[in-house]
Amino acid sequence: MTGTDRDILISRVIDGEASPEDWSALKALAEREPSVWRDLAGLQQDHAELSGAMTEVVAIADGVDAPVELVGGIADRGRSLRMWGGWAAAAALALAWIVRGPGAAEPLVSPASGQHAGLGPFGLSQNSGTDDYFNAYLRAGQQDGRVLGEVGEPVLVQTIPHEDGGYEVRYVRQVMERRVVPQLFGVGVGYDEQGQTKPVLVPVKSSSGRM
Amino acid sequence: MVRLVGLEDRAAYEGASGAAHVLAAIRGERDAQRQVWEDHRRWVAAVLMAHKPRQTDLEDLLQDVAMQFVRRIHELRDPTALRPWLRTVAMNAAHASGRTLARRKRDGLERRPAATSGGLGASGAAPGSPDAKPDLLTGRREEARRLMELSERLPDGYREPLLLRCLQGLSYRLIGEMMGIPDTTVETRIARGRRMLRELAEKETSSGAPATPRRAGQIENKSAGGKEAAHTPAQEPRTHDGSAEQSP
Fold first, then answer.
1. Contacts of A55 in chain B (CB under 8 A)
2. Where are the domains of chain B?
């Protein structure tokens, strides 16, 4: 019997996997080498100690649940955003057509285009950060009546753990704007010459209604 | 509260999370995902213990794996491959943690390991402080701590089946299924792992100094003609240094 065979025999006994044949072989071995009992006792004790330590690992594991609400919530929110994102794109298209009209020559005027010598857009310095520009946009928009303000708290979309620690948090900030337009249009589905569907503008009948 | 794991839990490992349950989890049913995770999280923790760096907190790592489980379970094509897939997710998380620690060490940003982590992980809080997690091995015999630490010195491929077997609910067959090796190889590695651990402990006790781990190729060659021959530990992914990563 090799050393490994002996170890396997002992290991089976420790694990409660020994067959009657294994027990017979162990007893026969022990008659020739009584030290096998001492060996068994030592390895059995080690196993018990390690198993005791593993109960602590199990206790930790039992305290960690699957974050189905968190991840599911983010996924649902992502799906929702994607769904409404499509409508938002269509609405933006409609708004552009209403404001500019087909064939309009002059570009849309943006506050960001009003640059001064040595300054960036909005009169901010070149070193200004994203937040500065965003706040300046809000201020400028509120001054000219275009922006009513930021709405609600940022909406959490996704959190991504970073390898170096911390998390990247992705969120949506919503700004309510207003604009006076002569006519309201909705977006419907039409067909082009090839019979392919395309978005078409459909006038909203009641000019006093809210969209 | 510490729950003892015994043979009565075997059913939890062997029978739970049948294919229908796993399929429901793959489809995104939250209750099924919750249940499948609960059925498997213990052995996932044991896999993490076998592969994570000592300084990494087990609970943090397990939460990371739980997050990835929920996020990526829909990628699983074969429900019967759940265990190997989940093991790979866990191993990748442990290796990523190893790489992060190595990078921090290189950049001089290494956090000091908690003095009483006992191998389970660093809490990051000073022992005795209000924020400190209870020392998970406090009150246990010093021998258990010593053996757990000594088991870190076992060659690659030996510690994991040894720790998994200590959960007692896991059969050789299931461990082999997870690790992608025959159950006879699992049995051999567990037996040899126990022997090596005992020798390490005796060597340390007799010398009074930490025993030098023997490399896989230096294992006492008692296995001539044994079952291990066709499955050497060298075939196992490297551990602790994060130098190898598998794709689920």
1. 2-5
2. 8-124+133-209
The confidence band for B208, taking pLDDT boundaries of 50, 70 and 90, is: low
pTM for the model? 0.57
Closest alpha carbon to B195 in A39, A32, A17, A49: A39
Which of B29, B122, B245, B160 shows the shortest CA–CA distance to A66?
Answer: B29
Tens digit of each residue's pLDDT (9 = 90 or more) over B179-200: 999 999 999 999 999 999 999 9
B64 within 8 A of B48, measured Cβ to Cβ:
no
A60 and B45 within 8 Å at the Cβ level: the answer is: yes
Question: What whole-number distance in Å separates Cα of residue B129 and Cα of residue B127?
Answer: 6
The verdict on a CB contact (< 8 Å) between B42 and A5 is no
For residue B187, the chain A residue with the least C-alpha distance is: A8
- Residue B178 has, within 13 A of its CA and on its CB side, a CA count of 25
Cross-chain residue pair B41–A61, CB shorter than 8 Å = yes
Residue owning tokens 């590695």: B189
Domain boundaries, chain A: 3-62, 68-180
ipTM computed for the complex: 0.70
Q: Are strands A147-161 and A167-177 parallel, antiparallel or unpaired?
A: antiparallel
Q: Which residue of A has its CA nearest to B198?
A: A43
Distance CA A128, CA A125 (A): 5
Among B55, B149, B42, B119, which Cα is nearest to B87's? B42
